[in-house]
Amino acid sequence: MAKLWAIIKREYLERVRSMWYLLSTALAPIFFGVIIIVPMVISSRTKASPDLSHVVILDATGTQLGIRVAGELAGGITGAPSRAIVRAVAPSELAAAETTATHEVMRANDPMLGYLVLDSATIAGKTERYAGRNASSLIDVKEIEGAVRHSLLAQRLEHEGLQASRIKDLTSVNLEMKSERLSDRGREVGGLANALFSYLIAFLLYMMLMLYGQQILRGVMEEKTSRVAEVVISSVSTDTLLAGKVIGVGAASLTQILVWVISSALVFKGRGIILARFDVVNVPIPIPHIGLGVALLLLTFFVLGFTFYAALFAAMGSTVTNEQDVQQASLPVTLLLVASIVFIQPILLNPTSTFSRVMSWLPFSAPILMPLRMTMVQVSWTELAGTLAGLISGCIVATWIAARIYRVGMLMYGKRPTFREMGRWVRRSA
Amino acid sequence: MAEPALDIQNIRKSFDGHVAVRDLSLQVPRGTVFGLLGPNGAGKTTTIRMILDIIEPDSGTISVFGQSSIQGRAGNRIGYLPEERGLYKKMQVRRVLKFLAELKGVRGRDADKRIEMWLARLSLTGGDKDWGNARVEELSRGMQQKVQFIGALIHEPELVILDEPFSGLDPMNAQALKDTVVDLRREGRTVVFSTHLMENAERLCDAVCIIAHGDKVLDGTIAAVKAEHGGHYVAIALGQDRPSAVGDIFADRSLVNRIDDSNRTVEVELAPNANAQLLLRKLIDAGATVERFELVQPSLHRIFLDTVGATGVEAGMSGHG
Fold it and tell me: Which of the ends of chain A has fewer CB neighbours closer than 10 A, N or C?
């Protein structure tokens, strides 16, 4: 036990003392702070939204629709008069007018944002066309689309004999969807914020497993190539060495996560004070409530996931003796991890589908995908218990196999073993 | 009689069909310096790894100070210096030594005290620079070997196992190592070392075991081995101008069985029933200037060559075992 402790202590302290560790631990909270504070400061400094009225409107409808749209686009927050240029064109001249408008958009000094085409299809309530520099901005396109819809509706109502002032009253409807998530705990914050938060947790888990897994692999390789392993193995069993390594490095990574979480929470809580220094009004940022139970579960998933991957990375590290082989040796384990991360998006879109559920049960992807699911939707206790039981079994099998590969691999030099040879090591020392 | 420090009975180890050690038995009495000799690939390192429980023998038993259990077999009573040396490069010397001490059950102030004592004894502190605070990678190769040597002895082991301790050492460090081995013996500790440098083995060892191709070829005290393998040997030193007739005398099979000509000195094994006096007379009659003519026991080097055979030696002289 004292020997295991000596190994844990060495692995932990040597890692925590390294410049890389100190820098990444200290800089990450500053980075988190920056991504929380800076967007708020910037958005408060940006007084006006871009003036969407700086467009050419090609009106082939033969009505006043173009002028209405120009008025509708005017101003934004600043209430400036519309800069839109409305050109009434005959449908047959539309193509030529579009070419001219394209040049106006492309020209170097004071370019237009784009041009909008209104024609008979627009009047029929079917389509409108917009070409512009900001065409890939969803918000801008939605805004223009809304302005056209609004103008068309107003034009139709006026046609039916309604007064202009009356139309304005009737059509000014500004609805915003506020979504809330329902779970056993009752109502919670909005779906989007929740999904983002879950994604961050899953990505953090993935990042830590990958980073520290690779560190273990390199650490093992270094011990092997520097031959220091032989001295250590003459004093402790390979199982103790492997266990000490996984626990020591795991503790270092947990320390780092803890520092990150606590410092981010402090920045988050104290953001009012920081924002006040920039004369920015603090606004509430919705983040989901993480209770002690969920926090402990997240910790459990991390610890088990770490054990699973660290053992496998260590086993792979024991099979290589040079830098060139590292990538190849780590590939099978890395692929398992990457397989988990590529399924984040489909699970984010539909966390309750059968696919999402099955992926979150499998031992190799559970450490990342179950935390993702359980922070997004309600996962039953039986499902959680089953996943944990599966993951624990996975850990036992992985460490069992890893310990056997490690035992032989640490004393083998020369060419890298094939998977068949590794299989023989596992069987022979079983 | 006290339990031997090391008792090996009929151990065997094979790797993928290749037999590395075949039915090896040997005993190392306490308080002796024991040499494990053999050419490259003879099975020395495999034997040492089995003694240290790094690998398990396929069959046979090994007991250290009477303890034969696999788990923690007298682990803290053994110090080990492997053939291929290395330490954690990025670690500070004192921290590496503290770690190695802790692995052997020496902790806290006790470990610190011993580390300081050894660093001073091997001149790693006390000079211009305190190398104890340097990272291992900042040290010269010789200094790194000293640190590793301290690591093997920090817990004051009763049995010290050194695998090819002299390989790669400069004369200064080799001398320091020899002095330490002598000190260890004086303190009553048992030292087992493997080597293919016969001169060192002959000077340091009380007893030796020669193995080749996984088999024990011979073992016993130096005196016993020499007595057993002693033929009639004569060491002869001849003057610069050696008459051509001397070659004919050495080629006379009724007189000389074999010679080992090292230019200034020639070691001659006399033929059975041959007379040393007759050889001396013939050399003088041939006009040779005889500067030295001494009846000697065969050198360990000679015995090694005789027993292991030329093929094994050719491979072995270049490297490790």
Answer: N
